[in-house]
Amino acid sequence: VARAARLPSLPAVTDLARNAVEVLPKGELERKLALGRPLRVKLGVDPTSPDIHLGHTVVLGKLREFQDAGHKVVLIIGDFTARVGDPSGRSVLRPMITPEEIGANARTYHEQAMKVLRDDPESLEVHRNSEWLDMPTAQFLTLARVPTVAQILERDDFARRFASGQPISVLETLYPLLQGYDSVAVRADIELGGTDQTFNLMLGRDIQKAYGQPEQAILTLPLLESWDGQKMSKSYNNYVGVSDPPEEQYGRTMRVSDQLMRDWYKLLLSREPPDDPYVAKRALAHDIVARYHGEDAAARAEAHFDRTARREAPTDVPEASFSDDPVHLPAVLGDAFGVSRSEVRRQIAQGGVAVDDEVVTEPDVEAARVDGRVVRMGKRRYVRLRRAA
Amino acid sequence: VARAARLPSLPAVTDLARNAVEVLPKGELERKLALGRPLRVKLGVDPTSPDIHLGHTVVLGKLREFQDAGHKVVLIIGDFTARVGDPSGRSVLRPMITPEEIGANARTYHEQAMKVLRDDPESLEVHRNSEWLDMPTAQFLTLARVPTVAQILERDDFARRFASGQPISVLETLYPLLQGYDSVAVRADIELGGTDQTFNLMLGRDIQKAYGQPEQAILTLPLLESWDGQKMSKSYNNYVGVSDPPEEQYGRTMRVSDQLMRDWYKLLLSREPPDDPYVAKRALAHDIVARYHGEDAAARAEAHFDRTARREAPTDVPEASFSDDPVHLPAVLGDAFGVSRSEVRRQIAQGGVAVDDEVVTEPDVEAARVDGRVVRMGKRRYVRLRRAA
Question: How far apart are CA B121 and CA B323, in angstroms?
Answer without folding.
Answer: 60
